[in-house]
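Record format v2
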Amino acid sequence: MARYLLTRAWQSALTLLLSTIVVFVGVRALPGDPALALAGEDRSPEALEAIRRHYGLDQPLPVQFAQYVERMAQGDFGVSIRTGTPVSSMLTTALPVTVELSVLAILIAAALGVGAGVLAAVRRGRPAEWLANGLALIGLSVPHFWLGLLAILYLSVATGLFPASGFVPILEDPVDNLHHIVLPAVILGTGLAAIIMRQTRSAMLDSLSSDYVRTAKAKGLRPRAVITRHALRNSLIVVVTVVGLQLGGLISGAVVTEQIFGLPGFGKMTIDAVFQRDYPVIQAVVLLTAAAYIVINFFVDLLYSVIDPRIRVTGDPA
Amino acid sequence: MTTASAPVLEIRDLSVSFPTETGTVSAVDGVSLDLAAGEIVGMVGESGCGKSVTAMSLAGLLPSSARVTGSVRLDGTQLVGARESALRRVRGREIAYIFQEPMTSLNPVLTVGRQIGEVLQVHERMSRRAARARAVELLTLVGIPSAAQRVDNYPHQLSGGMRQRVMIAMAVACGPKVLVADEPTTALDVTVQAGILQVLRDLRDRLGTSVLIITHDLGVIADIADRVVVMYAGRVVERAPVDDLFAHPRHRYTAGLLSASPQPGRHAGTDRLTEIPGLVPVLASQPDACTFADRCPAADEQCRAAAPPLEDVGGTDHVAACWHPCITAPTAAQEANR
């Protein structure tokens, strides 16, 4: 197991380095001279030269890259061109919002999706399955920005059950924080819940008709034990895979959801940065997103081996 | 082994049918069978003749769409139509099953110790710790070396024969009265097969468990069974002590089965195995006729007009459902063999 972990960690690090190079080169490949953009009114060659020296732009690319990596390792992502605030401090306020939103959305989606999927499989051909399938179809086909708008209209504006927008940091007031974020999280989670439900349902149908479930029944186990301990545990691998694959959609979904609910998160920061051509911010955002993918994939792989012993790469003899 | 005592398992007129889109399919029709304590009964027949459905119906393991009628009594307790909760107490504790595919019949994500222990936790209310300790004993009982280590293995870490031994350990964990082994050796190679049959025999001798072994392999039957039940198209067509059946098959189907299986010295040289022409019919309903008539060399009008009853055909406890039972040895090949 330790060797497996080490290999996976090494692979992750390599992938991260590669994405850093891609981001670095990508930004440099953009048309336009950053020195020119930074110079403003004073475009004398001396001023431009000074700017280039100041930002290290006169150095060869590999040196620039080394400096870039070194600064990032120290948590220095540069300064926003538009606001002049350090990108790192922008991230420290925006990231927790998005992380909380995404984690909550995943939890809600997993709970709803797995629950409904198991129910649909166990109650096959009965009203419960039709209901679950119908809801999943709605969850998949209704765009969640529209769902978000509906939710704001009916649950916030009309009834005042939830605040329509805004955010309170969790450390300030946990209850109020949850109150603000639960609705966006549910909206963000609906699509994922629908996908998880459908995958869980088909995986459960497979497991429920398997030989080991027949064995479990023949042992005299209660239906609950047969379903959870035997059928569901074997279906979870599919669920984990789906969640892992869908996280990309979740991140882009978070961008839209944050915009709708006015949450000051990563997504909102990204959109603002794109509209304002704020390159240091975009660069940091792209890199962090890539890093998030890599870390999540690492954990998904770890989860696999926890769920399915056949995937475990053990050093000890069988 | 024949015993005069009351049978442990008493099957009377058991019928099973399934509704399908094209109408009802009759899978088992009026099967009756007794299983005495410590007796090993073999149930033999082609694929699709209703062996497995019979086996699964004993403890109510068929899908809920199956219509089961008749009577299955385990030590006098009626199981057909019993409540699900009552059946759950019987399953694994009084009637235990071993299935054909040891690879897929064990849960891939649980250790074998856990899977054996589960039965004990449910039926004997053992703690997880005690159940694990008992699982080690059971693994030793079924002949798994270094059981204390193996108990923490996952099924994929064991060989096919080992896995089937695990299945057996799981089945006998609570000392069931009846062990139903549905093709327990079919997926295994011959040497492993012999080992598994030996384990079953040992358990019968040590624990006094009655065994119903279902197979299409006459070699397995000859090796282990005390009595044989031959099934065809959902009906019992012949029932006899094992030696009697092999020496004097009375039903034409049994005779056909025997001459279709290779025996040392019999089919040497250019001799071919004799096959039974045609297939087992899929029956919408059980006709009042011999279901084997279409494939039978001796069939006449009587066979197509009325179903033959199971009747005494001489010998001890030897019955067959045939209007024209074989009087002596049925085929030249078998004649030559004797």
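Chain B touches chain A at residues 59, 61, 88-93, 96-97, 99, 101, 104-111, 118-119, 122-123, 153-154, 156-157, 167, 170 (CB under 8 Å).
Residues 9-267+278-337 of chain B form a domain with the Rossmann fold fold (CATH 3.40.50.300).
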